[in-house]
Amino acid sequence: TYNFSAGPAMLPTDVMLRAQQEFINWQGQGCSVMEMSHRSKAFIEVAERATHNLRKLLAVPDDYQILFTHGGGRGQFSAVPLNLSAAGDHADHLVTGSWSKGAVSEAQNYLQADVVGGVEVVDGITQVQAQQNWKLNDKASYFHYCPNETVEGIEINTVPDTNGVPIVADMSSNILSRTIDVSKFAVIYGGAQKNIGPSGLSVVIVHNSMLDKARVETPSILNYGIIAKHDSMYNTPPTFAWYLAGLVFEWLLDLGGVAEVEKRNQAKSDLLYNAIDNNDFYANRVALQNRSRMNVPFHLANPELDALFLKESEAAGLKALKGHRIVGGMRASIYNAMPIEGVKALIEFMNDFAKRNG
Ligand code: PLP
């Protein structure tokens, strides 16, 4: 079985096997890691190792804090304005799909969230507007964008130039899939349930200069300064998710790190997009430069065959290919944990289905 779910998503098989082995008797402790105090020496070691390894994987500079917290990606839609702005401030938002739109509606509860740019459709193909057409505001408290739109399969490959305005990125669905220059960002955040681990955990990478600006009314569990000061243990963290994330980080390091997994992601997505482009039976409607390596939406030329495609693909062990209801059609999410064999199996099925129904 290959699981193409957009999230919670497939985790590396080796990690799941190790977690299973350790499940009820973690490191000879006689209990599961999820049954231990977050303040125990043993768990603190797990937490510190995970943090250290994530810092290594993304080459996070010393003047950034890594926070492991609650509230998923959406929790950060509120945490960002609360930590980075005062009431009445403006923030620039690039809206390229469902999640960056969601961030605007939440931010509007706290400040003036201005939509400064987005996508355009040219000949039926969606692309992100060129940056010179965005209406950036030099006085904005921050610029927010989503480098990978999970629903629409739209990815932005270069970090925008905001003329010094702090950049905040929702990397929920592409963190750790490619190398990034963390020093260009004020805040990077993401829900864990795609490339990091199970849901219930979010990771925030925040520059030190953003730690003491929170509004007084900021709930402590969203306050970057408080979370950082207490090593992400001001309240009880999602310990099991943090432990599992640590196993995923070790798996990634053993694989050769983010540069290596990026090569694999490039190869997997190239294969799948080529298969779609080379067959009139299927179409992807995102411009080449914005096609996501993580989430590949595609449509059948005849949507009446959608239900049959889903039924047969499920029976063939290819799970969760139904597209998001906003976009329709199909979506194959091929995060870090998806092996190339899974992509090949999908392509084989797609070609065969097209032959039989074309
Ligand atoms: N941002 C992006 C890009 C996402 O893909 C998601 C969820 O899939 C979210 C935010 C929301 O995350 P959560 O459901 O963890 O709040």
UniProtKB/TrEMBL annotation:
- Keyword line: Amino-acid biosynthesis, Aminotransferase, Cytoplasm, Pyridoxal phosphate, Pyridoxine biosynthesis, Serine biosynthesis, Transferase
Q: Does the keyword Transport apply?
A: no
As one GO molecular function, the record gives:
pyridoxal phosphate binding
Residues involved in pyridoxal 5'-phosphate binding: 73-74, 99, 150, 170, 193, 235-236
The answer to whether keyword Transferase applies is: yes
- Cofactor stoichiometry and binding? Binds 1 pyridoxal phosphate per subunit.
> Which Enzyme Commission numbers does its entry carry?
2.6.1.52
Q: Which cofactor does it need?
A: pyridoxal 5'-phosphate
In terms of Pfam families, this protein maps to: Aminotran_5
Q: Where in the cell is it found?
A: Cytoplasm
Give the primary localization class: cytoplasm
N6-(pyridoxal phosphate)lysine modifications at: 194
Protein residues bound to L-glutamate: 39
Which reaction equation describes what this protein catalyses? Answer: O-phospho-L-serine + 2-oxoglutarate = 3-phosphooxypyruvate + L-glutamate; 4-(phosphooxy)-L-threonine + 2-oxoglutarate = (R)-3-hydroxy-2-oxo-4-phosphooxybutanoate + L-glutamate
* One GO BP: pyridoxine biosynthetic process
Pathway listed: Amino-acid biosynthesis; L-serine biosynthesis; L-serine from 3-phospho-D-glycerate: step 2/3; Cofactor biosynthesis; pyridoxine 5'-phosphate biosynthesis; pyridoxine 5'-phosphate from D-erythrose 4-phosphate: step 3/5
Q: Which PANTHER family match?
A: PHOSPHOSERINE AMINOTRANSFERASE
| Complex and partners | Homodimer.
Q: Report the sequence similarity comment from the record.
A: Belongs to the class-V pyridoxal-phosphate-dependent aminotransferase family. SerC subfamily.
Q: Which NCBIfam families match?
A: PRK05355.1, serC_1
Name of protein: Phosphoserine aminotransferase
